[in-house]
């Protein structure tokens, strides 16, 4: 394909060059012809003027005492006029004062042949005309020979041959054509080489594009020149990078779906195993287990929606904004932790403040469970994980005034935290903590501290937690001052008419 394009472009360029050379040659030819014609006419006019000045004196000198110009006297006057204008390699002069014209001996070869053959054209009196002859075109200037009293005695004819000029112009045209042909040949070779070099990146682009179709994302070398080809190579590499990023995102999304769906499936499987162990007298336990299974199936559907929303960069929704009793959230978390068989997780249900927050109980439980699983995944076996709830007031910036969150924190990119009284849901561990380099981006999708290996995570857990928390009007923070990892969910407390927190007995 590159060779065909190379040849096509070369042929088109050569055709344009050939037409341009042809036009230049024709214009040059016509200019040479016009210049030659002007030179001949200038000589003819000069000769006519010189002869016209000498006519009265020569005629008067040749006229006898009788005052009548005889044929012999006219011939003498004509010869004397021609003696002062013998002709040149450009022109030939003839004086007609009798039946036989008197013609100069010198002149161009073509005009001499016409003179010897007696076929010199007469021309038109008072003008300069071009007359075709068998010796080529001849330029003729004809004027009357008059005396002082205005009597016409004969004619003056000045001839100029255009054959030599035309031959010279044709020779120049031939040389131009020859030089143009050589130039076209050399230009064709140079253009083919230049087009080959210019189109080589296009061949690389084609090869890279074929590889991209098979899943190989290969970049191409970018030329130093930033012309159209260089820009194309630059944009192609950008496209390859975007395709590679999209491919990586697709793979991460598949891994994330597997990771996020594994939790509710494991909970459901664990409760199904418990269900098979129930006897006839365990109806209440069976109903409770069936309810857990129903909630986990609903949660599966919501997780799919949340993952899709997070990967598209939009808000997770919809969520419920209704009163939620904080101890109930922790109790639901206990059930799910037990269903997963997670060990070393201490959920402080008894110490939870008996207050009501505004949010979605199931989504809050999902957030806490995701944080617990994240802590368990990123810490060595046996590392304690603690979950608790505590009340907090609002400082000047809406940040917690509780001691546990007084240190600077890494925030999700959402809105500022809720003003007024709030509840902090804290998940903390004593593990190695979060890498400081990852901390500023920890809430972004697909950011993980485990890039490979069997325990690699999807990097969507904290992104889902952030989206769900912000959808409920809360905020999520990571406390970098904690030796391990501490994540804090801050949710607004539902307030009574007097401004106090709503509490249940």
Q: Which helices and strands, and how do they pair?
A:
Elements: H1 2-62, H2 71-83, E1 91-96, E2 102-103, H3 109-117, E3 127-133, E4 136-146, E5 152-161, H4 163-213, H5 228-277, H6 283-312, E6 322-325, H7 326-340, E7 345-347, E8 356-359, H8 361-377, E9 385-392, E10 410-411, E11 422-429, H9 461-471, E12 475-478, E13 485-492
Parallel strand pairs: 7-9
Antiparallel strand pairs: 1-2, 1-5, 3-4, 4-5, 6-8, 9-11, 10-12, 11-13, 12-13
Helix pairs in contact: 1-2, 1-4, 4-5, 5-6, 5-7, 7-8, 8-9
Textual characterization of the structure:
Residues 283-310 form a coiled coil. It is an enzyme of class 2 (transferase). It is found in: Cell membrane. The chain is an alpha+beta fold and 505 residues long. It has two domains: 2-170, PAS domain (Beta-Lactamase), CATH 3.30.450; 298-492, Histidine kinase-like ATPase, C-terminal domain (Heat Shock Protein 90). 51% of the residues lie in helices and 15% in strands. The chain is built from nine helices and 13 strands. The chain has helices at residues 2-62, 71-83, 109-117, 163-213, 228-277, 283-312, 326-340, 361-377, 461-471; strands at residues 91-96, 102-103, 127-133, 136-146, 152-161, 322-325, 345-347, 356-359, 385-392, 410-411, 422-429, 475-478, 485-492. The strands form three sheets. The chain has a six-stranded mixed β-sheet with strand order 7-9-11-13-12-10. A hairpin with a 6-residue loop joins strand 12 (475-478) and strand 13. Helix 4 (163-213) runs parallel beside helix 5 (228-277), helix 5 packs antiparallel against helix 6 (283-312) and helix 7 crosses helix 8. The two termini are 82 Å apart. Residues 394-409, 412-416 and 451-458 have low confidence and may be disordered.
């Amino acid at each position: 394909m590159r060779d065909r394009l190379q040849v096509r472009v070369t042929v088109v360029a050569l055709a344009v060059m050939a037409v341009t050379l042809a036009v230049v040659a024709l214009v040059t030819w016509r200019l040479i012809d016009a210049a030659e014609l002007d030179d001949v006419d200038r000589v003819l006019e000069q000769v006519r003027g010189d002869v016209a000045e000498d006519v009265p004196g020569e005629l008067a000198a040749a006229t006898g005492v009788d005052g009548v110009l005889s044929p012999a006297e006219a011939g003498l006057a004509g010869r004397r006029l021609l003696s002062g204008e013998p002709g040149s390699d450009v022109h030939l002069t003839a004086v007609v004062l009798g039946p036989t014209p008197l013609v100069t001996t010198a002149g161009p070869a073509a005009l001499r042949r016409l003179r010897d053959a007696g076929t010199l054209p007469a021309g038109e009196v008072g003008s300069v005309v071009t007359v075709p002859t068998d010796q080529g075109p001849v330029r003729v200037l004809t004027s009357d020979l008059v005396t002082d009293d205005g009597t016409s005695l004969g004619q003056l004819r000045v001839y100029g041959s255009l054959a030599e000029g035309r031959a010279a112009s044709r020779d120049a045209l031939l040389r131009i054509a020859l030089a143009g042909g050589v130039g076209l040949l050399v230009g064709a070779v140079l253009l083919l080489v230049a087009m080959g070099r210019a189109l080589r990146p296009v061949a690389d682009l084609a090869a890279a594009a074929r590889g991209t179709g098979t899943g190989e994302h290969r970049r191409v070398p970018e030329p130093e020149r930033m012309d159209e080809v260089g820009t194309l190579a630059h944009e192609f590499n950008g496209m390859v990078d975007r395709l590679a990023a999209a491919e990586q995102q697709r793979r991460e999304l598949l891994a994330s779906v597997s990771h996020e769906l594994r939790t509710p499936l494991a909970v459901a499987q664990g409760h199904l195993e418990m269900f098979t162990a129930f006897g006839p007298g365990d109806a209440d336990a069976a109903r409770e287990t069936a309810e857990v299974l129903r909630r986990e199936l609903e949660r599966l559907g919501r997780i799919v929606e949340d993952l899709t929303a997070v990967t598209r960069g939009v808000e997770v929704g919809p969520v419920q904004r209704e009163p939620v009793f904080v101890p109930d959230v922790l109790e639901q978390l206990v059930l799910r932790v037990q269903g997963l068989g997670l060990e070393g997780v201490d959920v402080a249900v008894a110490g939870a403040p008996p207050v009501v927050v505004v949010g979605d109980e199931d989504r809050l439980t999902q957030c806490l469970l995701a944080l617990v699983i994240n802590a368990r995944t990123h810490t060595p076996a046996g590392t304690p994980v603690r979950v608790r709830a505590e009340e907090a007031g609002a400082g000047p910036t809406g940040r917690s005034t509780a001691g546990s969150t007084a240190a600077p924190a890494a925030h999700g990119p959402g809105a500022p935290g809720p003003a007024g009284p709030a509840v902090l849901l804290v998940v903390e561990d004593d593990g190695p903590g979060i890498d400081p380099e990852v901390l500023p981006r920890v809430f972004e999708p697909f950011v993980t501290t485990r890039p490979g290996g069997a325990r690699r995570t999807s990097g969507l857990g904290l992104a889902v937690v952030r989206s769900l928390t912000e959808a409920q009007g809360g905020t999520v923070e990571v406390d970098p001052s904690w030796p391990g990892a501490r994540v804090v969910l801050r949710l607004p407390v539902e307030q009574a008419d007097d401004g106090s927190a709503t509490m249940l007995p």
